[in-house]
C-alpha cells in the first residue's frame, strides 16, 4: 500500500509557527500525565483535538489495576498480565510497569483523586483474568472521569503547561530522521500551524472508530498512529484489537460499555432461551478472558438467530447494584429496562487497540525526538491481549516515563527550525461523501476484521480498502472528518494485512481457519514500517 507522506501539502517556511520545548499531543491519562512530568523540565504545549476533558480515558468505568490490596503482590499481577498476553508480553516491561503502579496511584491520591472506599479503606474489585481483587474504582463506575478531573485540575494549575484545545494534529514534522514537532490545524483552520518542539510525545489513544460497533467515543480515530506511520516510525502488533464482550445493544442507544466489573460482581450471561451458556465455553464462565467471552457471545448469537445475548443481574440485590453501578442503572432506566427485573441486551464491540507505535521502556519510538505513551504506543506490556483495567495503568506509567525522559534530554540550546516541505495528494474532495465512505469502511472491518477472521474475508477487506484508498488518500480534505477517514483507512489496511499475515489464533486475534496457537511459527511480533 502506498500512503502519501502527509495529509496536506506544506512548506513550513510559509506557515505560522508556535515554539515550545515539548509538545504533547492528546489529553487522556497518558497525555496529561506526560505533560505534568515534562513541565518539570521545560515549557509544554499540550494540544488536543476536542475539549481538554474529552478522551477514551473519560469513559473508563471498571477501574485501574494496582497490586495494593491485602495479600496481593507485584508478582501475582505480573503473572496474570503475562498469562493474558499469550506469550507476547515482554516480561521486563511488565515487571517494570507493575512495580511503578503503586507510586503512580499514590501520587494520584495525593493529588486528590477520590477512589471508592469502604469504612475508610480503598475498595478493590475483581475482573476477568485477575486472580485477586485489585481493581481500584471511583464513583462506582466512573473511574475515568475521576482520573480526568484530578489530572485536569493539576494541568490547569501548572504554569509551564499551555493547553490548546480543538487543535488537530495532522502530521509529524521530521527532518533528517529526527522529529522536530507537528503540523496542526487550530479550530479546523487551513493553512495549518507548525509546532516547533525539541521533543514530541504522542498520546492520541486508540482507533475504536474503525469499527461499526465500538465502545470508543468519536475522537478515537487512530490519528497519532497513522501520523507516526506516515512519518516512518515502526509500528507493531497491528493485528491485535480487543473486543469487549458486553456493550449495551438497544436500538437508538449508543454502544455504551457495560463494565466487566458487573460480571465480577456476579452478573450472568444468558441467551434468548434463558440458558446460561458461558460454562460450556470456559471453566471461568463469565469471568473468562475477554476474547473467549466475546467469541462465545458471537457463537451463541449465531446459534439462537437473535441479535444479542443478555446480561442477567436480577438475582443480585437491586439496591446494591444501583449504588455500585449508578451509570449503568441510569442508562438502563432511560431505555425502559429495570435491572432488578429485566435482562439487559448486549453484544461485543471494538474496545481497545493493543498494537501501536513501537516504543521502549521510556516511551521512545524509532524516530529520535518522538515519544509515544498510552493506547497509541506498543510497548509489549499487554502482549496479544490486554487484561482489564491494565490500560489506565499503562497510561499513567508510560505518560510519566515519556514526560520525564523527554524532559531530561532537552537540548541545552535551542536549534534553528529547519524548513520542511512535503507534497501530498492534491485531488479535489468534491463529490466525496465522507460519512458514506466511513460507514462502508466501518461495516467492512466489523464483518471481515472483527472478533473472528479468516482468509477470504481478510483478502476481501484488503482489496476493498486498497480500492477506496486509491481515490480517498489522493485527496486533500479541508476538515477533520476527512483527515480522520484517511487515518482510519490507513490503519484499517495495516490491521487487515497483519491479521492476514498471522496464520494462527492468539489472544485477541482469532482466525477461524487457523484456530490453534502456533508457538513454533508465530510466537513473535510483526512490525511494520512505511
Ligand atoms: P485517550 O484517553 O483516548 O486520549 C487520547 C487523546 O488524544 C484525546 O484527548 C483525543 O482528543 C486526543 N487526540 C486524538 N487524536 C488527536 C489528533 N489528531 N490531534 C490532537 N489530539 C488528538 N481501561 C482501563 O484500564 N480501565 C477501565 O475501566 C477502562 N474502561 C474503559 C471504558 C470505555 C468505555 C473505553 C472506551 C475504554 C476503557 N478503558 C479502560 C480503556 C482506557 O480508557 C484507554 O485505553 C485509555 O484511557 C487510553 O488513554 P490514552 O491517554 O492513551 O488515550
Ligand atoms: C470494563 O470496565 O469492563 C472495562 C475495563 C477495561 O477496559 O479495562
Describe this protein's structure.
It is a single chain. The chain has 530 residues and is an alpha+beta fold. Among the domains are: 244-348, Flavocytochrome C3, Chain A, domain 1; 421-528, Fumarate reductase/succinate dehydrogenase flavoprotein-like, C-terminal domain (Methane Monooxygenase Hydroxylase, Chain G, domain 1). 34% of the residues lie in helices and 18% in strands. Strands 2, 3, 9, 10, 11, 12 and 19 form a seven-stranded mixed sheet that branches. The chain binds flavin-adenine dinucleotide and succinic acid. Residues 25-31, 47-50, 54-57, 59-64, 143-144, 168-169, 203-206, 215-216, 219-220, 223-224, 257, 352, 374-375, 389-392, 395 line the site of flavin-adenine dinucleotide (FAD).
Percent helix, as a range, is 25-40%
Q: Describe the biggest sheet?
A: 7 strands, mixed
What do the pLDDT scores average to? Answer: 96
| Ligands bound to this protein structure | flavin-adenine dinucleotide, succinic acid
Please write the CATH class name of the domain at 421-528. Mainly Alpha
**Count the helices. How many?**
15
End-to-end C-alpha gap: 9 Å
Quick one: overall form? globular
Unreliable stretches (pLDDT < 50, length at least 5) are none
What is the CATH topology descriptor of the domain at 421-528?
Methane Monooxygenase Hydroxylase, Chain G, domain 1
Secondary structural class:
alpha+beta
Supply Rg: 22 Å
Strand content: 15-25%
By CATH, the superfamily of the domain at 421-528 comes out as: Fumarate reductase/succinate dehydrogenase flavoprotein-like, C-terminal domain
Amino acid at each position: 500500500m502506498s500512503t502519501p507522506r502527509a495529509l496536506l501539502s506544506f512548506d513550513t517556511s510559509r506557515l505560522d509557527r508556535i515554539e515550545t520545548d515539548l509538545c504533547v499531543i492528546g489529553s487522556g491519562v497518558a497525555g496529561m500525565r506526560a505533560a505534568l512530568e515534562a513541565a518539570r523540565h521545560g515549557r509544554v504545549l499540550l494540544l488536543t483535538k476536542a475539549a481538554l476533558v474529552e478522551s477514551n480515558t473519560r469513559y473508563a468505568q471498571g477501574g485501574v489495576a494496582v497490586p495494593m490490596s491485602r495479600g496481593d503482590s507485584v508478582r501475582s499481577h505480573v503473572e496474570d498480565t503475562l498469562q493474558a498476553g499469550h506469550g507476547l508480553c515482554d516480561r521486563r516491561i511488565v515487571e517494570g510497569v507493575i512495580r511503578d503502579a503503586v507510586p503512580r496511584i499514590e501520587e494520584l491520591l495525593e493529588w486528590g483523586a477520590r477512589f471508592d472506599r469502604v469504612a475508610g479503606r480503598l475498595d478493590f474489585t475483581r475482573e476477568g483474568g485477575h486472580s485477586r481483587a485489585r481493581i481500584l474504582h471511583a464513583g462506582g463506575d466512573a473511574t475515568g472521569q475521576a482520573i480526568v478531573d484530578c489530572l485536569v485540575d493539576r494541568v490547569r494549575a501548572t504554569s509551564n503547561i499551555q493547553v490548546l484545545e480543538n487543535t488537530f494534529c495532522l502530521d509529524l514534522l521530521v527532518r533528517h530522521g529526527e522529529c522536530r514537532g507537528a503540523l496542526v490545524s487550530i479550530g479546523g483552520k487551513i493553512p495549518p500551524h507548525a509546532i516547533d518542539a525539541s521533543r514530541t510525545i504522542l498520546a492520541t489513544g486508540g482507533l475504536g472508530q474503525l469499527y461499526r460497533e465500538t465502545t470508543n467515543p468519536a475522537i478515537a480515530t487512530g490519528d497519532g498512529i497513522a501520523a507516526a506511520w506516515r512519518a516512518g516510525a515502526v509500528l507493531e502488533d497491528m493485528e491485535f484489537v480487543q473486543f469487549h464482550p458486553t456493550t449495551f445493544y438497544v436500538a437508538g442507544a449508543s454502544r455504551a460499555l457495560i463494565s466487566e466489573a458487573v460480571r465480577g460482581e456476579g452478573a450472568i450471561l444468558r441467551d434468548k432461551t434463558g440458558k446460561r451458556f458461558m460454562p460450556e465455553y470456559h471453566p471461568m464462565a463469565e469471568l473468562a478472558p475477554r476474547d473467549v467471552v466475546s467469541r462465545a457471545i458471537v457463537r451463541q448469537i449465531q446459534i439462537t438467530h437473535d441479535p444479542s445475548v443478555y446480561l442477567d443481574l436480577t438475582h443480585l440485590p437491586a439496591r446494591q447494584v444501583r449504588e455500585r453501578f449508578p451509570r449503568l442503572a441510569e442508562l438502563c432506566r432511560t431505555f425502559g429496562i429495570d435491572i432488578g427485573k429485566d435482562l439487559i441486551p448486549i453484544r461485543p464491540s471494538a474496545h481497545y487497540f493493543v498494537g501501536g507505535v513501537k516504543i521502549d521502556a521510556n516511551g521512545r519510538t524509532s524516530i529520535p525526538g518522538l515519544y509515544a505513551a498510552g493506547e497509541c504506543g506498543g510497548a509489549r506490556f499487554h502482549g496479544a491481549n490486554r487484561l482489564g483495567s491494565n490500560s489506565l495503568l499503562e497510561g499513567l506509567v508510560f505518560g510519566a516515563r515519556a514526560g520525564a525522559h523527554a524532559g531530561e534530554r532537552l537540548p541545552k540550546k535551542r536549534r534553528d527550525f529547519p524548513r520542511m516541505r512535503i507534497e501530498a495528494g492534491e485531488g479535489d474532495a468534491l463529490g466525496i461523501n465522507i460519512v458514506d465512505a466511513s460507514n462502508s469502511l466501518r461495516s467492512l472491518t466489523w464483518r471481515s476484521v472483527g472478533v473472528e477472521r479468516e482468509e477470504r474475508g481478510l483478502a476481501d477487506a484488503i482489496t476493498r480498502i486498497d480500492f477506496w484508498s486509491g481515490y480517498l488518500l489522493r485527496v486533500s480534505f479541508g476538515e477533520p472528518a476527512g483527515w480522520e477517514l484517511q487515518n482510519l483507512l490507513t490503519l484499517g489496511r495495516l490491521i487487515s494485512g497483519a491479521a492476514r499475515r498471522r496464520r494462527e489464533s492468539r489472544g485477541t486475534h482469532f482466525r477461524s481457519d487457523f484456530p490453534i496457537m502456533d508457538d513454533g511459527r508465530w510466537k513473535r511480533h510483526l512490525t511494520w514500517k512505511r
